[in-house]
Structures are given as structure tokens and as C-alpha cells.
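Example record used in the benchmark description.
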Amino acid sequence: MGLIGLITAIWVVYDVLAKQTKMDTTQKLIWILVALSLWLIGAIIYYIIIKREHKYEETPEEIPSSYDEPSIY
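Model output (C-alpha cells):
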């Protein structure tokens, strides 16, 4: 059970830092602390509140199709 809890905590920390681009720094810090202190339960809470609704993630139309192509206005 400890290994599963550790893996889920690492997943939450990664997801908060890498994918939740619209989340402010204070909320990121709170979710990281929740994940590291509650492990599996924290990951479940994070999934229910944040991840399931894609609350702070960029939508596909906000992500440029290619960073290498020049922008033509």
C-alpha cells in the first residue's frame, strides 16, 4: 500500500507542476502539500476536485499547433 501511495503522490506533484498551467502558485503549493501528506487519499481528492473537470488545464485551442511555424498575421 505504501508504494501505491508514493506513486500517486508523485503523480499529483508531476501533474500540478507540469499540466496545471492556469493554477496559481499558492494552489500548486497546497496541492503538493496535500499529496505529500495524504498520499493516496490526497490523490483521490485531487482527481475528484481538479483533474476530473480539467479545471486548470489548457484547452486544445489554447495550445499552438506547432511552435516551429512562424505566426502570420
